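User: I'm designing a mutation panel for Ornithine carbamoyltransferase and want to avoid disrupting the core. Could you give me a predicted structure to guide residue selection? Please restate the sequence first so the numbering is unambiguous.

Assistant: Good idea. Sequence first, for numbering, then the predicted structure tokens:
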Amino acid sequence: MNKDLLRMDDLSKDEILDILNLADQLKYEQKHGIEHHLLKGKSLGMIFEKASTRTRVSFEVGMYQLGGHPLFLSSKDLQIGRGEPIQDTARVLSRYLDGIMIRTFSQNEIETLAECSSIPIINGLTDDEHPCQVLADLMTIREKKLILEGLKIAYIGDGNNMCNSLIVGCLTLGMNVAIANPIGYKPPKYYIEKGISLAEENGVSFEMTEDPSEAIKKADVIITDVWASMGQETEAKKRQIAFKGYQVNSEIMKLANNDAIVLHCLPAHREEEITEEVLEAHADEIFEEAENRLHAQKAVLVKLLS
Ligand code: CP
Ligand code: NVA
């Protein structure tokens, strides 16, 4: 395995499957009261430059359950908030900690942090990627559908961090991916090219369209995300107009397979990207997905820190 988990393509197919298998095992054992202090004596720094509910709590509880020590580090209170270079922060924190999970804006910043650190760095969301969420999504899909290979995933919405990590993760595991994004909101070129080459390599399909009905046709899994991500709050009004017609609602769901599941990384904006009706009809899947953040990340922590 690479030292770090910065982007979904840091993981090979076998490494993703290893993480999912360990996550399933840790979930089962935790539910049966079996404790694993696999990270006893280890400390994880958790740097947040953006808000979080799930990522913060699941990493913190996950480290505790593994016998380790999590430290919540708000960038507002760290010297990086006052301009200390990320390179120096990396060199200092590498001497105290056994790993860092960071949620920030720029992918370059975490790449620099990783280059200058001697300890593993985990991406807890950047503007470009959300690999921990996608590992939990894959775990949830396999739990609900029992297989991954050959399924059709439809992502409807912004070509953002979630879309990017899903393209790479799902195609790497041999799933067919269809994405529907409005013009001007497609994923960056890197992910489109990566998607095309992964689909070719793995003999699966990667469709890109502006028509959500096209993408969702016969899908097994439907995934969406907010129209305005963290840091894009001032664009919310403009985006509400651009994304009109990209809502996951009961009408469009008729085009998916009858037994399709719906995932949403949360937080959800009801009646924007997803209706209350669809969210509640699929709450079992969506909240299992949220729970699986804990199990999937424990597996990542064990693989990278132990
Ligand atoms: N899905 C997710 O990452 O949630 P938080 O923003 O609450 O961490
Ligand atoms: N795309 C969203 C995901 C939140 C978990 C954001 O970046 O805000």
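For picking mutation sites, this is relevant: Strands lie at 43-48, 69-74, 99-103, 121-123, 152-156, 176-180, 206-209, 221-224, 261-264. The mean pLDDT is 98.
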